[in-house]
Each structure stands twice: as C-alpha cells, then as structure tokens.
Amino acid sequence: xxxxxxxxxxxxxxxxxxxxxxxxxxxxxxxxxxxxxxxxxxxxxxxxxxxxxxxxxxxxxxxxxxxxxxxxxxxxxxxxxxxxxxxxxxxxxxxxxxxxxxxxxxxxxxxxxxxxxxxxxxxxxxxxxxxxxxxxxxxxxxxxxxx
Length: 147
Description:
The protein is an alpha+beta fold and 147 residues long. The longest helix has 39 residues, at 10-48. It contains 3 helices and 5 strands. A 5-stranded mixed β-sheet has the order 1-2-3-4-5, with helices on one face.
C-alpha cells in the first residue's frame, strides 16, 4: 500500500497564487493613491511652514524673498533658491506658491500649491490641478480647495 502523501497539489498551489494575485490587484492601486496623497500633504505642510516667516517679513521690511523666508527647496517641488516663492502686495495681501515636480510622483508634476493671504491676514490653501491630468480629489489635503 501507498503511504500518506504530504504536500500541496497543483490545484491547491494555483488557488493560492490566484488569491495572492487578487489581493495584489486590489492593494497596489490603494498603495499608489496613498503615496500620492502623502506627497501632496507633505508639500503643503512644508509650504505652510513659511507662513510665519512671511508674516514676520511683512510686518517688518516687507520683503519676502527666499533668503528672508529661509526657503529651502523641497525634493517634491520644482522650486529653486533663485525663484521666489512669496509675493507681498502693498495692501498686505500676498501668497506663497510652489509647483510639484522634482521627486514627486509623475502624476503630480505641475500641480500648483498656494497659500493665499488676504489683506486682513487670513490664509487660504489652494491647489491648481490643471496641469495634472491624473489628479483625484482624494489627494486633496483637508482645508485646501481645488481650483
């Protein structure tokens, strides 16, 4: 007589591989979406750190160049020290703005992130997605409006 056979049959292995494939087909797009959302959130939070320096400069000399703001280009944006991220208007309004690029996901390249300041000192986060054809509203950080 034959002894008891130990191991997996071909059918059992094929079923296990199919289950893993189905799980991967669901998980990979969710992971990619989370990566893009985290990159947008990171770039917005990095830009937000310059709001206080903008306020200090506006109340003092009024100059908001990159050197006065202490701007350091992020790896997720196409910014450089030669191009100022801040603009101050005579009425006290202004904005801080960067464009996604650099090491950001190619689907985010060209997205413009902006913090708009009105004359009363209120800041508003705005995102211009017109250059990103694959933008999804799920990437929008809380508190930001998409143009």
